[in-house]
Amino acid sequence: MTDMRDKYGIKLSYNKAYRSKDCVLHNVFGDQWKSFKMLLAYFHMLEKCNPGTITKIEIDRKNWFKYGFMALGSYIEGFNTVIRQVITVDATHLKSKTGGVLLVAVCKNGNDMIYPWVFGFTNSECSKSWTWFLKQHCRVILQPELMLIISDRHTGISNGIAIFPDAAQGVCAYHLANNMKQHCRK
């Protein structure tokens, strides 16, 4: 709205600006719902072109998308050979018409740089989705008993981590500090 006003002197309502942006995104990137239908083909080509890559899609009885998982072969090889098995897991909500949640597991490499590890996506952040994601995660780790999993202690994550009985668990210091500020004001 501001760009149109400043550059062209056109005043747009919020609704018109939103619909215009939506139309442009549709023209540039295509229909968001059709992209889910292409996911199987994309994952197939990802595995074919990237040796060692593991992907998985789960759908429900109505053939609706439920969960997705992706671990690139080069990341798997690097993780299982040279990366410290200190894994941080978290989720972020996707802001689009389709919605959903992106589940991520990351580590740090020897240079203290973030090492993207595995990705998942689902409709909601709950115990079932975290358990499914962490089971897929377990498939690509050579020694899951040596892991340390750090999280914000979301109930879904805590329940999902139960599939790793020997793995150590830690709490994210950032989330812990925020919780302390919020709940212990004195």
Description of the structure:
Residues 86-179 form the MULE transposase domain. This is MULE transposase domain-containing protein. Pfam families: MULE. The chain has 186 residues and is α/β, with parallel strands linked by helices. The protein folds into two domains: 1-29; 32-183, Nucleotidyltransferase, domain 5. The chain has helices at residues 2-8, 14-29, 32-37, 39-49, 73-82, 127-139, 155-161, 173-183, and strands at residues 54-59, 65-71, 86-93, 101-108, 114-122, 148-151, 168-171. A seven-stranded mixed sheet has the order 1-2-5-4-3-6-7, sandwiched between helices. A hairpin with a 5-residue loop joins strand 1 (54-59) and strand 2. The chain is globular. The mean pLDDT is 85.
